[in-house]
Design goal:
heterotrimer; B: alpha+beta; Enolase-like, domain 1; C: Aldehyde Oxidoreductase, domain 3; Aldehyde Oxidoreductase, domain 4; 3 domains; about 25% strand
Chain lengths: ~160, ~290, ~775
């Protein structure tokens, strides 16, 4: 099988990798790079659980060929914050009970981050719109929107 | 889909050279939101995939005195955010905002949506109502301009040749007195494939319709214009009675199918209901 | 939490941890992306499994040729029915107590006959997924297609195609008889008769079915999977012909279950492949595979006849329920029982006649799904209530108030309600919160209000003799360990145990570590189903924690020369109630106990009330430990021209007994309400001749963030549940009465009623045109 050599920056780390033409970014992240924090809920862009930031833009990694990410920055939830350095979004999700089974959480926080990067004080409607590609089956969305709105109000420009 | 090759062309000529040399199915990819699911479902098995997304020169929204020009690789998200489009052609903004969901809009491109040619292609009805032109580039020849209403041939079929790509989409800026409306009916409010979608552009003076352009999606094998209803509207007074009478005629112009989302009868009925509504909305915008 | 209203009945006890909104301990790992779900697991040398599934809904399998597949380089095993030591087992319901009469055939791999499209025919394990997929395609199955039957009513007819190997497609039927419905109808001034239909529905958890398995020391088969029931290790062992103590199931954090991961999904396949290949194996379903092949909510056809006097007193209820069990029995008899016992709703009706049956067809098999047969009948009985109200010119609240059960009254099955019944209270409060109808925003828009009440059981059927065990222990440094078999679906099942242990032992919740879901290492707590975990493992943990607390305080009393009643545990200390300054640190107390050889751990077993099997001939007896009562109130805007329904407000008012973690309880109420909304308005697994026409999330629609409204929660706390601290279960009750509330609201808006779910825009337009 033919492979191509590319280089990506994953959560700040520069990585050289060989990939096949049909390989999606989701597959590369999960299967080759151990980035299992990016989830596979449907494999075809219907659920958003695979969302990552690609050069800062929130996209479905299952709908991106890894070759198309060549030279680009990929940010997963681990690049947004962690235990030692949590992002306000992560703290808010935890505190507001916005996480039940947690499977949609990584994708939700990616979409929320993308929103807050361009809109510091989104309305509730704008938040709904920003996560319109992220399905959640457990929470009914309310606490997720509450959590994002809470951060929005605290953000400084 | 093993054995697929990938080409990242430095420019269009690169792309066409490679295409000439390749035997077997070639597929262009831009945002990938349609192409990738098709490859994974094996409804598409290309030998070579040509990645157009790297051609930076095809991302733009330009406004001149008379025209709007949108590069084929402009993402749907960019169209949603564009102040120019919102000011000049709000029906296009509206359609863009209701396509897919936020994540897919960040990747899907205008050229890709049109080239995929789904009968329910979200961007087609407003562009048809705006009488848009598709500009292409082709292998050895320089390319051509195709009126959008001559572009679609059937479900997922267009007039594009194997080695022809869309480079830009243009339309004349509607006159000040022209106003439009776009309505999409789906089974839910995000990530919904249209049951019926329609776009209307009306130019009205003294309550008489001077010019009407009506375009529909998801109710025929391709997105379509309704020339007959347009002609009926032009020259008529925009009274409620007239609008109702004329709108019903649309049911004869379309041939929707029944599928898991909706029956043909419901689609027909809703087309005339929503057409009335769209005309009224366009008129109201004209009054403001 | 500011918009949640909590109405507390005054009580003496004040809580330290319980009752406070607490961030859940599993939330941190999930927020940072650390949690490993089943598909995130990886073992060196792991093989990948794929399943070959039947192309036909009904067929004889004439032959299966696996030679080509076996020869493909990289393939390590290809298994068919002949390779399974015990391919067929009989499922008997109940982990500890056998209940005869409802035995269903469970087949690992299809053998000679196929009973639904998507039934597993063969298994492949290979070095990569790509090779496994290729190998599956190389297996040649030779079918002789059979006509099949796809409608339960057709399937019941004499001479119908037999789905299974028996003489009838009818699995079982039940009756409830109370009084004399003929008499009841003769006493009625109005009679309403309608047939209601509800469809196949998918659980649509965002995490597809997944697991890994490996052979460990001494030939033990280990399976780590996303499952609601680790106790399936017994069935898996039986399939392999292993002793039960040599199959270990470890439950991962589950990405949503809702009953869909209650039956075995991947576990047996994994066990077989790991056993055959002696290598680790992973199996994850694709979304399409999940929709195609896992259980669904039972479709029901429900014929209801309700009679009432002109004052609105219901005199008679007659119901005929038919459910579509699909290709295999699974939990159909139990779902049917819940529907049958719940068919009258939370109402006191003097004359009742219910007849129900569940029938095999060649559709995808139906089994457990949040609510377990009750959402279906609730749609019927709550629609009937509003129809009666309309005919009698009474408000929806009035007619219900005249008929609600009260504490001390009996159900139609004879069981007397011995705990507080929060009706009409929840209905009154929900309606009060709903307030006045808002004005329509356009000529085509119609606004409607609707309510629906329900009583939903929590805890398993009492004749199953349900038990649950939990270990609570204190480490030398005063940190607390809980070990419990509880499977965590995301509903905070594990976290609640931490909260209870923290409450009893007077430590912050962060000091408690909960180890869960390992059949080898954690005391078995039973299934995470039937809204039973808080009740069962919560009580077991409470018992264990109380015992440990008692031992600590006994030692402390001795050290301080006081009586136990003078002492309490708080903030990692023992303190004297009347002299708060006098304390012993928990750590020092633990050391003192250890020095004395006092065991500071306890494995407690909580037994639910054990009752005998009910009399199925008359449907009399106790079935459930207790019920949660609640009402949903809804405001909708309906576009009368397109039929589109927009939810404007959704209020959930339930008596939750005691909210151990209010954040978690709200989460259930909000999430359950939206799942109910999906059931009402858009969810439908469309099967035509056994073929699924809605294979993915593009066709099978669940609510997105743009479709929903912010659910408003009103939690009543009667403290009268049978769970710890008087808690009641809310997991299922939170979703039961939303669909009828929405449909009632739509009817209120438009003046026409829809008798079938989902209430799609097209159905509304059709109904309006007919009217």
């Amino acid at each position: 099988m033919k492979t191509y050599s590319i280089h990506i920056i994953l959560n700040g780390e520069s990585i050289k990798i060989d990939v096949a033409a049909q390989e999606t970014l989701l597959e590369t992240l999960r299967d080759k790079l151990g980035a299992t924090e990016v989830k596979n809920g449907c494999g075809k862009g219907d659920c958003g659980s695979c969302a990552v930031l690609l050069d800062g833009v929130a996209v479905n990694s299952c709908l991106t060929l890894t070759l198309q990410a060549d030279g680009k920055e990929i940010t997963t939830i681990k690049g947004i914050g962690n235990d030692e350095n949590p992002h306000p979004l992560q703290k808010s999700f935890i505190e507001k009970g916005a996480i039940q089974c947690g499977f949609c959480t990584a994708g939700m926080i990616v979409s929320a981050k993308a929103l807050l990067d361009t809109n510091l004080r989104p309305s509730r409607e704008q938040i709904r719109d920003a996560i319109s590609g992220n399905l959640c089956r457990c929470t009914g969305y309310k606490k997720i929107i509450d959590a994002i709105q809470d951060v929005a109000f605290e953000s400084k420009p | 889909m093993e054995g697929m090759d990938y080409l990242r062309p430095r420019n269009l000529r690169d792309a066409f050279n490679a295409i000439e040399k390749t035997k077997g199915l070639i597929k262009f990819i831009a945002g990938g939101t349609n192409v990738i699911p098709d490859i994974r479902a094996e409804t598409l098995s290309p030998k070579l995939i040509v990645d157009l997304s790297v051609l930076k020169s095809l991302y733009y929204i330009k406004e001149t005195n008379r025209t709007i020009s949108i590069g084929a690789l402009t993402t749907i998200s960019e169209i949603v955010k564009s102040d120019v489009i919102r000011r000049v052609a709000p029906i296009l903004s509206s359609a863009a905002h209701q396509l897919g969901n936020t994540l897919t809009r960040n990747r899907a491109t205008l050229g890709g949506n049109l080239a995929d040619a789904s009968p329910a292609a979200d961007m087609a009805p407003p562009l048809l109502a705006l009488e848009a032109l598709i500009h292409t580039k082709c292998g050895q020849e320089s390319g051509r301009k195709i009126s959008l209403d001559k572009f679609f041939l059937g479900p997922n079929k267009t007039v594009l040749a194997k080695d022809e790509i869309i480079t830009k989409i243009t339309f004349l800026k509607p006159k000040e007195s022209a106003h439009g409306s776009y309505i999409k009916l789906g089974l839910r409010d995000s990530m919904a494939i249209s049951i019926v979608s329609l776009a209307v552009m009306l130019q009205v003076e003294n309550n008489v319709c001077q010019k009407a352009r009506i375009a529909l999606g998801a109710v025929a094998p391709t997105p379509v214009r309704s020339y007959r209803v347009e002609k009926e509207l032009e020259g008529r007074e925009m009274s409620i009675k007239n609008i109702h009478e004329i709108a019903v005629l649309i049911e004869k112009e379309i041939s929707p199918i029944s599928d898991i989302r909706a029956s043909a009868e419901y689609r027909k009925y809703e087309t005339s209901v929503l057409l009335k509504r769209a005309i009224q909305q366009a008129l109201e915008r004209g009054k403001k | 939490m500011s918009d949640t209203k909590k109405i507390e009945t005054p009580h003496k006890k004040s809580f330290k941890s319980v009752g406070k909104p607490q961030p859940r301990h599993d939330a941190r790992d999930k927020a940072f992306g650390y949690t490993k779900y089943a598909d995130d697991l990886s073992i060196l040398g792991m093989l990948y499994a794929k399943v070959l599934r039947s192309e036909y809904a009904a067929a004889n399998i004439l032959s299966i040729d696996t030679k080509k597949a076996e020869k493909l380089p990289g393939v390590r095993a290809v298994l068919t029915a002949k390779d399974v030591p015990n391919n067929e087992t009989i499922t008997r319901f109940g982990q500890t107590h056998s209940v005869g009469g409802f035995e269903g055939l469970y087949r690992v791999l299809a053998d000679k006959k196929v009973r639904f499209k998507g039934e597993a025919i063969a298994l492949v394990a290979a070095e990569t997924i790509a090779i496994a997929e290729k190998a599956v395609k190389l297996i040649r199955a030779n079918y002789d297609p059979l006509p099949g039957v796809f409608d339960p009513i057709e399937a019941m007819k004499p001479g119908a195609y037999q789905v299974g190997e028996g003489k009838s497609n009818v699995i079982c039927n039940y009756k409830v008889r109370k009084g004399d419905v003929k008499k009841g109808f003769s006493l009625s001034d109005v009679i309403v008769e309608n047939t209601y239909r509800v469809p196949f529905v998918d659980h649509a958890y965002i995490e597809p079915e997944s697991g890994v398995a490996w052979t460990g020391e001494d030939g033990i088969i280990n399976i780590q999977a996303s499952t609601q029931v680790i106790e399936h290790f017994r069935e898996i062992a039986d399939v392999l012909g292993f002793p039960h103590n040599k199959v270990r199931v470890i439950g991962t954090m589950i990405g949503g279950g809702f009953g869909g991961k209650e039956d075995i999904t991947v576990e047996t396949y994994l066990a077989l492949l790991a056993w055959k290949t002696k290598k680790p194996v992973k199996l994850t379903f694709t979304r399409e595979e999940s929709v195609l092949s896992h259980s669904k909510r039972h479709p029901y056809i429900m014929k209801y006849r309700t009679g009432a006097t002109k004052d609105g007193k219901i005199m008679a209820l007659e119901a005929e329920l038919i459910s579509d069990a699909g290709g295999y029995v699974y939990l159909s008899p139990w779902v049917l029982l819940y529907s049958t016992v719940g068919a009258t709703g939370p109402y006191d009706i003097p004359h009742v006649k219910v007849d129900s049956c569940t029938v095999l067809t060649n559709n995808t098999f139906s089994s457990a799904f949040r609510g377990f047969g009750v959402p279906q009948v609730c749609f019927a009985y709550e629609s009937q209530m509003d129809e009666l109200a309309r005919l009698l010119n009474l408000s929806p609240l009035e007619i219900r108030t005249r008929n609600y059960l009260r504490k001390g009254k009996a159900l139609a099955t004879g069981r007397v309600l011995d705990h507080y019944v929060a009706l009409p209270e929840t209905a009154e409060k929900a309606l009060e919160a709903l307030g006045k109808k808002r004005r329509p925003r356009s000529p085509a828009e119609k606004i409607g209000h609707g309510i629906a009440s329900a009583m939903t059981s929590y805890g398993r059927m009492v004749f199953l003799h349900d038990t649950s065990r939990s270990y609570v222990g204190i480490e030398m440094d005063g940190s607390v360990t809980v070990r419990c078999g509880v499977q965590d679906l995301g509903g905070g099942q594990a976290s609640s145990l931490a909260q209870i242990a923290a409450e009893e032992l007077g430590v912050p919740m962060d000091d408690v570590r909960v180890y869960i879901a390992d059949t080898a290492l954690t005391p078995l707590a039973g299934t995470t189903t039937a809204t039973r975990q808080l009740y069962m493992s919560g009580n077991a943990t409470l018992m264990a924690a109380k015992e440990v607390k008692k031992r600590l305080l006994e030692k402390a009393a001795q050290m301080l020369d006081v009586v136990i009643d003078d002492l309490d545990l708080k903030d990692r200390k023992v303190l004297l109630r009347r002299k708060p300054g006098k304390t012993i640190s928990l750590k020092n107390l633990v050391r003192a106990c250890a020095s004395d050889g006092i065991p500071l751990y306890k494995v407690a077993q909580f037994n639910a009330p054990f009752r005998e099997l009910i009399d199925f001939k008359k449907g009399q007896g106790q079935v459930f430990p207790d019920f949660t009562f609640g009402t949903h109130a809804v405001e909708v805007a309906v576009d009368a021209e397109t039929g589109k329904v927009q939810l404007l407000r959704l209020i959930a008012c339930l008596d939750v007994g005691k909210a151990i973690n209010p954040l978690s309880v709200e989460g259930q109420l909000e999430g359950g309400a939206i799942q109910g909304m999906g059931y009402a308005l858009m969810e439908d697994v469309i099967l035509k001749n056994g073929v699924t026409l809605t294979p993915s999330f593009s066709e099978y629609l669940i609510p997105t963030s743009l479709d929903v409204v912010d659910v408003e929660c009103i939690m009543l706390e009667s403290r009268d549940g049978v769970g710890p601290y008087g808690a009641k279960g809310v997991g299922e009750p939170s979703m039961v009465s939303i669909a009828p509330a929405i449909v009632n609201a739509v009817c209120d808006a438009l003046g026409v009623r829809i008798f079938e779910l989902p209430v799609t825009p097209e159905k509304i337009v059709k109904a309006l045109k007919k009217a």
